Amino acid sequence: MHPNSFQQIKTRPNGSRSGILNTRRGALKTPFFMPVATRGAVKGLTPAEVRATGAQVLLANTYHLHIQPGEKLVKKLGGLHQFSGWDGPILTDSGGFQVFSLAKVRKITEEGVLFKNLLSGNEVLISPEKSMQIQFNLDSDIIMAFDDLTGLDPEARSRTTEAVERTHRWLVRCVAEYKKLTKNLKETEQPLLFGIIQGGLDKKLRAESLEFVQSQSVDGIAIGGLAVGEGRSEMYDMLKFLSLRYDPSRIRYLMGVGEPVDMRLAIENGIDMFDCVLPTRNGRHGSVWITGDKRLDLNNLKFAKDPSPIDKTCDCNTCKTGYSRAFLRHLFKVADPLAGRLTSVHNLRYLNRLCEQYQNKIGG
Amino acid sequence: MHPNSFQQIKTRPNGSRSGILNTRRGALKTPFFMPVATRGAVKGLTPAEVRATGAQVLLANTYHLHIQPGEKLVKKLGGLHQFSGWDGPILTDSGGFQVFSLAKVRKITEEGVLFKNLLSGNEVLISPEKSMQIQFNLDSDIIMAFDDLTGLDPEARSRTTEAVERTHRWLVRCVAEYKKLTKNLKETEQPLLFGIIQGGLDKKLRAESLEFVQSQSVDGIAIGGLAVGEGRSEMYDMLKFLSLRYDPSRIRYLMGVGEPVDMRLAIENGIDMFDCVLPTRNGRHGSVWITGDKRLDLNNLKFAKDPSPIDKTCDCNTCKTGYSRAFLRHLFKVADPLAGRLTSVHNLRYLNRLCEQYQNKIGG
Questions:
Q1: Cβ atoms within 10 A of the Cβ of A159, count?
Q2: Which phi and psi angles does A107 have, rounded to 5°?
Q3: Rounded to a whole number, what is the distance in Å from the CA of A362 to chain B's nearest CA?
Q4: What are phi and psi of A57, to 5 degrees?
Q5: CA dihedral A198, A201, A205, A207 (to 10 degrees)
Q6: Contacts of A98 in chain B (CB under 8 A)
Q7: Band of pLDDT at residue A118, cut at 50, 70 and 90
Q8: pTM of the predicted protein model
Q9: Would you call B73 and A304 a contact, using CB atoms and an 8 Å cutoff?
């Protein structure tokens, strides 16, 4: 744990706070949103374009990069920053979520998760130690602990307690492995390590999980297992419940949330950071946010003759350059990949601007 | 015809020449290559990126834009430049080639070509007059005459003479329609009109066709019906044959050629302009040119660990930014559209630089 990794600068009556997260690759203003660069790139975009949306830090996926091109190759080529051309900080997830959602899981044991690599056909074990090693080889600046996930289906709920307890035991192993991997690095050269709390929609379990994770030597507290299909009000209720129990000296990360209305509510319940595929994936399908957190579907025929930009008040490069809704609709109609680029830029700017409003608000 | 549309500045012992093509949207240095923006955009690229490769002028496809979004919509939205964001000159093809290669042709008559619009199911007639009107509505700066095409298969060859004669009759109708459409425009506001010579691999027919087209009121001479599957030596032989017969005061355009070795030979046989989908289509499939007109396939496993750029001596934005062959191979492997963008930029720069070497050569 790095005592000065997070500096809280201000809290406001609405419950939001702003501050600075110090990483070895620079300081990040909070709250912030992380675009998802699953395989090292935000799909279709150059690092310079992503930077121009106001993004300060990217999230890359450990599972995907482990499968292709492999973390050893990335390390050999100078690490993920050198490989991808993004020179700002990078957070890597632990690989756990993708193993559960994408791979054919063979067995979950105390040791770790055994799954089948669908590309090579090989069986692969990811353990807490292995996850730390992969993220370290990728040269991640913010490393996530490897957790045991549960969904919300009845069978999954029945093992919530077991999963929380295993997540805690795995966190202890992650911290130990992290210390081993970083012992020869000066403190200013070490990546940060974040723990993840679980517990589904069970408040007692969540409170215990938060308390346990905050007792460990971790730089940040991530909330896993929300935004996985529960109702919005259930998520809000849990965020309010947790907001009273955080250690103020640590940064809080709500994983997988990127709907503007959810982000606002989360920020006003003390959340500092987010990641989500929503702005880029929705963008590539023609869905864009406009002022008021509303969505437009640019595939709609009513935009065919519309000469206005996506949003007249928007300061993203797509709107400022003057691309019309009519031209964007045409590009979607003919499946030109330029369409998804231009809307991804717009949507990322939308979320980064949302965060900037909380960073910059005077007084409050 | 605009007597000063082309100014020849220099001819060289190697047979090449350099000059200036004056269009209503600016002067273009010759020789030049036109990237293909089939539906208004060079696939995946912004106008600014295309411009940064050294491109001076784009080619857009009349057939595709007629089908979607329709030239009337484009006109309503201010023309193709305003619609697409490309503010330099645009050449439009006549639609003839695409009608033959993409649509279900119902009937070719003296009136024009009747085909089925596969999108709407409607039957559509494109006549010489209609082609002029569509290109005029798109606000094209260089309008191509509508020609009757033949391929090189035996059946097609048997109607070569008929097709050449019809092409000539249609050219007369194109010139008449063009005059009608432009009669209220000042000369400096008029688009240019190019005629197309046909004749397959028959030298006598080609000579007649060239003579006929040069007798008409057209600003440029386009060579159609080459690079359609004949052997390279047959194309070279025809280009040499034609090189002795051109009117030096008019620009010459070899349609559909974009292989560097072919472009060099064509330029050294008096050709001034080119278009081709090769740099962008090949690029999207991972094929890139490097010094010496050689090709690399970036999908190849041997590039997986290669930290060098595509070409160390290249001044394109992809190579200058430092994207490695290893990262590009990875992007192709995971089907990220960024891959095709970066290689399209490289390949376009390759061809534009090739042309610039002929534009700038001192002495010679």
A1: 15
A2: -165, 135
A3: 37
A4: -150, 145
A5: 80
A6: none
A7: confident
A8: 0.95
A9: yes
